[in-house]
Design brief:
- Helices cover 66% and strands 4% of the residues.
- By secondary structure, it is mostly helical.
- A hairpin with a 2-residue loop joins strand 3 and strand 4.
- The protein is globular.
- Keywords: Membrane, Transmembrane, Transmembrane helix.
Length: 422
């Protein structure tokens, strides 16, 4: 029972953090208020860890949490948005607090990985259901109108909750090369990690997953195998480009159109505006403007008009949106997180944690993957596992050479060597 209750708790907070994949048949108020309750109660429970936990990724996550909290009064001071509205609009961005809950629970990495894979399978099942049932919306929302519409040559479904699926797909790639049991299952899940981005016709998704998978394959090969792998990948890419696939044609057409626009590309213009002109006073330039309630009050109506009249949406500018909402302190937290992802080594079977954080970095310029509820819970899981591994890594002197070993939470016969990525 002691192990079952934390597992049920984690499954519950994950489902509500993902808002049940934005299911249309679940009442919005029920989702929101339950989510507010879970986050608030968890914050109180994890307060000692938030204040006193040390080492690993705690400094980065703590800075991000404080930045988000500090932004709440800024929306009132700068824009006149009431504190109660700011609190309710900001809470959905605070699943970061679950990182400290996991530390308090000392949650099992093996169980957490199973939860990640389980939710990724739910993601796949619901995505294919929604794909078959399109254009009627059962999960998520359309980019335009009340039904999924044709965009980039296909009915485009940006399915909610992608973070948990991306983390699981990268885990699958890692499991294949580390010879984990259940190889056929991991191969199938890894394949979905390439197929789903193409079906969703999202350039960052496609390119990010492709580059990370290719990197993982190449990093352990000798020079000859690398040449063969790159040549094979190149031929495969050429074949795709000439295969008359609507999704591929749509991605190419969109890329060419945006490249032709150059500095006039709407996301470039939006990013420049939110970076330089959005904050009306200097305190907001430092501590952020806080989160607006769309369409309500002066602040909410201003943000709505920016989107509807000028096409400037915070969701299109990634890390710049983090700065606009939560200020320089949040940027510092993300910088610390990514810096550690490049400098802190991991055992071979956990390299997927780095890859997930690098995926966030790669997509952070023009996508909301760094802060949206579709991704934050998966980011928390990745950081917690990374954090535990770092704290359980010991340095041993062997024949005058320092070697690092990871001591698993459930000890096996031998510790696992830790190596830096080449």
């Amino acid at each position: 029972m002691k192990k079952l209750l934390p597992t049920l708790y984690l499954i519950t907070i994950t489902a509500f953090a993902l808002k049940f994949f934005d299911a249309k048949f679940v009442p919005t108020k029920f989702l929101n208020y339950t989510n507010y309750l879970l986050i608030s109660a968890s914050a109180l429970a994890a307060l000692p860890q938030l204040i006193s936990a040390k080492g690993g990724f705690t400094p980065a996550v703590r800075v991000i949490v404080f930045a988000i909290v500090f932004s709440i009064p800024m929306a009132y001071l700068v824009w006149g948005q009431s504190l109660s509205v700011s609190v309710f609009e900001t809470l959905p961005y605070l699943p970061w607090i679950y990182f400290f809950v996991l530390i308090r629970l000392n949650f099992s990495i093996a169980t957490l990985e199973k939860i990640i894979v389980g939710f990724s399978l739910v993601y796949l099942a619901l995505y294919f259901f929604q794909f078959v049932m399109a254009p009627t919306i059962y999960f998520g929302r359309s980019l335009w109108g009340d039904t999924f519409s044709v965009d980039r040559g296909v009915i485009r479904i940006i399915f909610p909750g992608a973070g948990i699926f991306i983390l699981a797909a990268l885990m699958a790639i890692n499991k294949i090369t580390s010879r984990a049991p259940g190889r056929p299952f991991w191969i199938a899940l890894a394949a979905m990690g390439l197929i789903i981005p193409v079906m969703q016709v999202t350039r960052q998704f496609i390119l990010g997953m492709t580059l990370l998978i290719l990197y993982h394959v190449l990093r352990s090969q000798n020079i000859l195998l690398r040449i063969v792998t790159l040549a094979t990948a190149g031929l495969f890419l050429i074949g795709l480009l000439n295969a008359d696939i609507p999704q591929i044609d749509g991605v190419i057409a969109a890329g060419q159109r945006d490249a032709d626009l150059g500095k006039e590309y709407i996301r470039v213009r939006a990013g420049t505006y939110f970076l330089t002109d959005f904050s009306p006073e200097w305190p907001a330039q430092v501590f952020g403007n806080g989160v607006a309630r769309w369409g309500e009050g002066y602040y909410g109506r201003f943000v709505e008009l920016l989107g509807n009249r000028r096409g400037y949406y915070l969701s299109d500018v990634g890390i710049i949106a983090v700065y606009a909402n939560f200020g320089l302190l949040a940027i510092l937290g993300f910088a610390l997180m990514w810096y550690r992802s490049f400098t802190v080594p991991l055992p071979a079977e956990y390299q997927y944690l780095k890859y997930y954080l690098w995926y966030l970095l790669f997509t952070s310029v023009t996508w909301f993957s760094v802060y949206h509820h579709h991704y934050v819970i998966a980011t928390v899981f990745a950081l917690y596992i990374y954090h535990v591994i770092q704290l359980r890594t010991v340095v041993v002197q062997e024949d005058g050479i320092e070697r690092k070993y990871y001591l698993p939470q459930q000890p096996g016969p031998f510790p696992t060597p830790v190596k830096n990525l080449p």
